[in-house]
Amino acid sequence: MKIYGSFTSPFVRHCRIVLLETNLSCEFVETDAQQSAQLSPTKKVPLLIDGDLTLTDSSSILKYLREKAGFSYLADIKDFELFNMINTVMDACVNIFFLEKMDNIGLNDSKYLQRQNSRVLSGLQELNSAVSVGKLPLTDGEIRLACFLDWGLYRKRIDLSELDNLQRLLELAGTDEIFKQTAPPLNL
Ligand SMILES: N[C@@H](CCC(=O)N[C@@H](CS)C(=O)NCC(=O)O)C(=O)O
Fold first, then answer.
1. What domains are defined for the chain?
2. Which of 79, 96, 169, 171 is 20 to 30 A from 154, comparing alpha carbons?
3. 11 pocket-lining for ligand 1 (C-beta < 6 Å)
4. Given a cut of 80, is residue 187 above it in pLDDT?
């Protein structure tokens, strides 16, 4: 089994966390944007290949890994909703990031980007209200959220100063060895 990805992507990080949690044997192949454009029809990472099976989305990869290791995956509807809402917000945030990085297009240049940005802001507010910080181990919805928040801070895309519950969730995730171990590298 091989997984293609980067050490900075929050989608890939979730998969790396589950691989470490489940102890499944899988080769990690570091992949840049040029390589992912050739490897995957979606031109994104992560990508998982296991024999004849190719999975092009972190959601299907996570389901495959959890179930392969004998666990259920997002069985609780509230956790599933949390996971999906985070995906929407994270996609918008990553979209804003790439347009700025690759094309130098900012919020002032595009009405649609402004809509994406307001989606991020209202999404973060809602996530702050929806999440109730419990204890380890984190659910897949919570792991997703912690990966997104850590990436957002790393790339300076989000501000959590008024979002206490999200700060608490990230603090709790920071006490988890595997979460710490998979943090994005500081020098990129
Ligand atoms: N829905 C996908 C999203 C993955 C994604 O957006 N990956 C980013 C890296 S964080 C990517 O490869 N972007 C390349 C691009 O947009 O060209 C998943 O869950 O795997």
1. 2-68 (3.40.30.10), 77-181 (1.20.1050.10)
2. 79
3. yes
4. no
Atom 15 of ligand 1: nearest residue by CA position: 44
Residue 140 has a pLDDT of 98
Q: What is the mean pLDDT of residues 67-89?
A: 98
The answer to whether the predicted template modeling score (pTM) of the entire model surpasses 0.90 is: yes
Ligand 1 centroid to 170 CA: how many Å?
22
Length of the chain in terms of residues written: 188
- Distance (angstroms) between ligand 1 centre and the Cα of 15 equals 13
* 119-128 per-position pLDDT tens digit: 999 999 999 9
93 within 8 A of 117, measured Cβ to Cβ: no
